[in-house]
Amino acid sequence: MTSAMVSFLVAEGRLCWEDKLLDHLPEARGFAYGDVTLAHLLSHRSGIATNPPQWLLLRYLVAGGDPSELSRRMVKGVFGRRPAFRAGTDFLYSNMGYGLAGMIAERVTGTPFKDLVRRFVFEPAGMTTAKFGMPPQDGTAPLEHRWSGLGGKWKAIGHGRRSVDDLPVMWPAGCVSGSIADLATYGRWQIQLFRSARAASPMHTPIGPPPDPPRQWRYAMGWFVDHRQGASSDLRLHHAGSTGGSFAYLSILPGQSRGFAFATNAFRPEWSEPGGPFISDLASCLA
């Protein structure tokens, strides 16, 4: 959704894919990320760490604090790390990279990130239940579950008073909740964008070589990409997400105008592995 929003800002001429971090985020000056572009951020090829410094995140979850101020400290902490690789040369899934892309969109437009997503994604897609933050924790949503290796059974879990979804720097990496119908609605909208070659279509194009050559999946901007049989009509776009106790997955075959949405109030870490057996089983539902 962040990539879709940014795509429309690019179409309006307010951003360019080759814009660099330093063009919009002066706080990056003096650090080793001068060559990182907006396209690098959205394709996870920036070399920026996956998540903010763990101690800052744990400190917030335990002791609280101002989420906006903590987000600024997290950005500074990530910039202070050495890049995992030179920008564009490898793949590292980076939630922080998406956080920075969201910051850039805010700086350029002067509009809060959440308002940008509502304007460019929720409203045009027709998503009526989508909102920001964790699913309700007041009993109106199903209890979430996580698999316990000790005893080999599912255990209901609850979330504390604070979560990573409170932190503005983490919003662009995935803080939307809603109905499974809206997840399917979003997939239908993405198919429409793909087939009409509208502004968002560049985000469907794989960037760079396969990050995991034996499995042959690739990554575009916000989408894992593969070809089931090698034909263009079999192009498959998919992604998964989790709160740690719930799991959602969306897969679309835009060339065939078909898709599959899945959600459950449970999660096992291996489910979200790209090209792994669980994702492969879900993908077979489109066969």
Largest sheet: 5 strands, antiparallel
**Secondary structure: helix percent:** 25-40%
Provide the low-confidence segments as ranges.
none
Which class best fits the helix and strand makeup?
A: alpha+beta
Which architecture of the largest domain per CATH?
3-Layer(aba) Sandwich
Number of spatially distinct domains: 2
Strands ordered across the widest β-sheet: 5-6-7-8-9
Describe this structure in words.
With 287 residues, the chain is of the alpha+beta class. The chain is 33% helix and 15% strand. The protein contains 9 helices and 10 strands. The two termini are 25 Å apart. 36% of the residues are buried.
Keywords:
single chain, alpha+beta, Beta-lactamase, 5-stranded antiparallel sheet, 3-stranded mixed sheet, 9 helices
Question: What would a concise description of this structure say?
Answer:
The protein is of the alpha+beta class.
Topology, element by element:
Blueprint (H helix, E strand, L loop, with lengths): L1 H10 L9 H4 L13 H5 L11 H10 L3 H13 L15 H15 L3 H13 L5 E2 L11 E5 L4 E5 L18 E2 L2 H17 L21 E2 L4 E4 L7 E8 L4 E7 L4 E7 L1 E2 L9 H7 L4
Parallel strand pairs: 2-10
Antiparallel strand pairs: 1-4, 2-3, 5-6, 6-7, 7-8, 8-9
